[in-house]
Design a protein that fits this description.
The complex is a heterodimer. By secondary structure, chain A is of the alpha/beta class. Chain A is 39% helix and 22% strand. Chain A contains ten helices and eleven strands. Chain A has helices at 2-24, 36-49, 62-70, 85-93, 123-130, 157-167, 188-197, 232-236, 256-266, 268-276, and strands at 26-31, 54-60, 76-79, 98-112, 120-122, 148-152, 183-185, 201-206, 215-216, 218-220, 243-251. The longest helix of chain A is centred in the N-terminal third of the chain and has 23 residues, at 2-24. The termini of chain A are far apart. Chain B is mostly helical. A two-stranded antiparallel sheet of chain B has the order 1-2. Classes of the chains: A alpha/beta, B mainly alpha. At the A-B interface, α3, α4, β7 and α7 of A face α5 of B.
Amino acid sequence: MWKKIFFVLTMFLFLGLASANAGKKFIQIKGSDTMVNLGQTWAEKYMEKNPKEFIAVTGGGSGTGLSSLISGTCDIAMSSRNIKEKEVDLARKNGIEPYEIKVALDGLAVVVNPKNPVSKLTIDQLGAIFTGKISNWEVVGGKNAPIVILSREVNSGTHVYFKEHVLRKNDPNSKEEFAPGALLLSSSQAIADEVAQNPDAIGYYGMGYSSSKHKPIMVAKDEKSEYEAPTIENVVNGKYPISRPLFLYTNGEPQGPIKKFVDFCLSKEGQDIVLETEFVPMK
Amino acid sequence: MRKFKEFIIEKLILICGLASILFVVLIFIFLLREGLAVFKTVGPFEFLLGKSWYPISEPAQLGILPLIIGSLLVTLGAAIISIPIGVASAVYISEIAPLKIKEILKAGIELLAAIPSVVLGFIGMVTLVPWVKNIFHLPTGLTALSGSIMLAFMAMPTIVSIAEDAVYSVPKSYKEGALALGATHWQTIYRIILPAGSSGILAAIMLGIGRVIGETMAVMMITGNAAIIPHTILQPVRTLTATIAAEMGEAVVGSEHYFALFAIGIALFVISFAINVTADLFLHKRSS
């Protein structure tokens, strides 16, 4: 009898020790789907150099990452949009002080199926398509077919960014919304898959997802401007009109292992990884 | 000492039995507490009958009518597909099939029940969705119909195994009596066995539908999630479950969006509770 109790107690002791040890060098990163590939590559390279440390990277969307930073369930939140004031207030209520670090730039590519003859659009046309005012490809120079709008779910920073900058054109009083018939897909990959097999679909994602199965649309600010393709070069020189910064958020100024990781992301090596994963480095 | 031990064990089991009821009550209280808060910002009618769902806009539009209709449409479609097939195969397995085929079929149906819903959703996304798009010449294959077909696969194991039990438990004497009076095998099944097992079969159908309406992952992957009121089954829909799953991560705790998602949870709870109670009523009618 006593043997059993002793056994159970020692088990608990070991479990306690193990979890205390694991907690020490374990960094949890969560957030933007756009940045998942980037975050994972950073984590892999970082763990190769520092084998004792362990970093877990998961996606889910910028909102998901920020709300887990607010509730204290992750150490670093990846976000493809600025934190909202509401979220900062909530975080402070929970005793968490969000600290913003800009780590890269991203161009948002608007993509269609390669079979679609349309290859360039203005921001106004894009806004009209995604709000449902233009619902047939004929209007913008394509064939006579209904436009299938693909969007990300509302937990996506890309969704929010696209709405604010393309649909509402940076006007805070604008009430424009995605057309109610827009298909809301849960990941950038799902959008990529649907565009690849549907000649009438139009969708958007971070440049990093581009492949030969989709055709990026060349975009112009207005009718008088040049149409520009979403390339790294055009994002750096600011010619491509739909680009945005990418952020990491931490609780307060990063310290200890978290600081070490953030520094790695901003280092020459980290920024080379940014370029490799088809984002645009800060410098 | 022995009596004392007995007493302790008895009470422990009692607590375990009560625990599940306690949990249901606690969950329901929690749902109500979080969900009812949404009615501070929107009226119950506006919430249930509103036609636009734009939860993150300022001001947010929180009308769940398209979501309720979406869920019901997908469920109805799944029911129309799975009930005839499910009941027919239950009858075949328990009444007609030779022993060997019966064993194989039963194992196959259990296997179907074991496939995780996310896998079914994935298979549906790459095979069924393009197929639906091409056959009906639709702009997109992410439609309520695709969801219904996939969910029918999920409901079928439940319907078949419970309906098969019901058919099997019809007293042998009924069947023998019918055959002795000169009825054919088909007449016996149609006129005697099905009516005699009807309450059990209805319960099986209800439980199958209960499974369908609560299913999340597969519908989220293949129904397109557009919050519109569909006019046909060939349009995309957004279901109650998919909305909660897709948006819960984003909703800031304590915001009206967060409360609205819990209120959707209440609506879903009420619907599946009603279905389960109906199933229970049928089952009890059968046993008494």
